[in-house]
Predict the structure.
Amino acid sequence: MNKVIGVIGCGWLGLPLAKSLVTKGYEVKGTTTSKEKLETLSNAGIAPLRVHLSENEIQGNIQEFLNGTDTLVVNIPPKLRGKGPKENYVRKIALLAANISTSAVREVLFVSSTSVYGDGQGEVDEETLPVPTSEAGKQLLETEKLITENPNFEATILRFAGLIGPDRHPIHMLSGRTNLSGGNAPVNLIHLEDCIGIITSIIQNNLWGETINGVYPAHPTKKSYYTQKAHEKGLNPPSYNTSETENLKKITSCNPFITKNYVFSASI
């Protein structure tokens, strides 16, 4: 329990993760890009540092942050959607990895995404060769490789499916929409509580050198699932067209940690 945990990226997932680790007795450090958020981290018992990563430089004393850190959680999603400028995510994380390599950090948990699997790959698990179709998936897969091949630390890759939580659910975006495709496709989701639970278990059990798909084991169809969620939340359900979909990607896990040891605490 003497481990010092560093969480790079204290956002929607990273902040509640860091708070949870503090309650379990860990010494926790956390980074944020926001000056205003430094006080929030500090008040939660998290040693804060303002750091901004880009593909060309790291603003902030990253070596100070890494100094004395035993285990590092890298939780920085790629900025490849929307109308803003697209980043070279691989180069950005490579710059971070170079700094980690010269530090005392020996364990890295890299939070990735199941977008490394292509839409047409069907049912997949950790033994499936990913064939990403999105730009984010392609850059994440390349980044996973540079992290796992670094000889200066042990790394585990954690690929999360769609993230949901108390203030985050796709039904709010889908409510009332019509003529949607993919109604027969399975949902691939995971709740914030289990994201935190899986990361904590990996750290506690020293599960390094692993690749793990973090996804809830139930996969109802999108049509049935989002119709049910709309009714539960008092929203207008989305409607789907009758055409068949080729995107029947179903994310599963064959990693013994998920299949035999981890017990999911929050349903989707």
Summary: The mean pLDDT is 94. Residues 4-165+189-217+249-261 form a domain with the Rossmann fold fold (CATH 3.40.50.720).
